[in-house]
Amino acid sequence: MTKNNDNIFSKIPENIGDILKKQGILEFRPSQIKSIEKGLFSNSNNQIVCTPTGSGKTLVAELAMLDTILNKKKRVLYVVPLKALASEKYREFKETYGEDFSVKISVGDATDERFANEFDVLMLTSEKLDSMIRHSRHFLDDVGLVIADEVHLINDESRGATLEVLLSIFKAKYSNIRIIGLSATIGNADEICGWLSADLVFDEWRPVELHHLVLAGDELNRYK
Fold first, then answer.
1. Rounded to 5 degrees, what are φ and ψ at 150?
2. Which CATH number goes with the domain that contains 206?
3. Domain tally for the chain?
4. Rounded distance between C-alpha atoms, residue 221 and residue 54, angstroms
5. What is the pLDDT of residues 102-130, one digit of tens each?
6. Is the pTM of this model over 0.70?
7. For site-directed labelling of 61, which of 3, 70, 97, 185 has its Cα 20 to 30 A away?
8. Number of Cβ atoms within 10 Å of the Cβ of 11
9. Which domain holds residue 218?
10. Is 7 inside a domain boundary?
């Protein structure tokens, strides 16, 4: 482990650091380092993590999730735009953390009141979250963190309004619930951060170099 990563581990709660090491995570990517240095563990500020696909945004969300569940003794909502993505994240988190705490998913059309008290982390779509808030006034009582994956879809014409309303509700009525927004493609990240009173974690590092090519006739040319 490098000196830089030793320094980062010193800023992570010991119990979470132990979990990372058991998973074989001994080094951090730039966005993860920036998030930790901006107070992922040392304060409760909202964060918007805007970095390319594959750059490690999900681990930032997992770190905040672990701290919320294990150290703050609060529940976590993981909000995604699509049922398929909720199912994917559920399988991943269930496999990784299922033995340590309760991972649930709720994406059906019917409101299930049981989830009001029977989860540590709950995967759901923004539409499902909207429904559950409306049908259970105690649903958010023990929630400490909301992770909004693909938060740039707030600008989506068909589904963005629901997410915008939800984030507005958290901002206005549940300011004690932390918001971590994840996106690879926010064009106005500063404005969203201002709206949510969030710290911006921005980085352009990506695991695979990105090339821009232009096809002209039968020739493929690199775009400069």
1. 55, 45
2. 3.40.50.300
3. 1
4. 26
5. 999 988 755 455 555 689 999 999 999 99
6. yes
7. 3
8. 14
9. 43-222
10. no
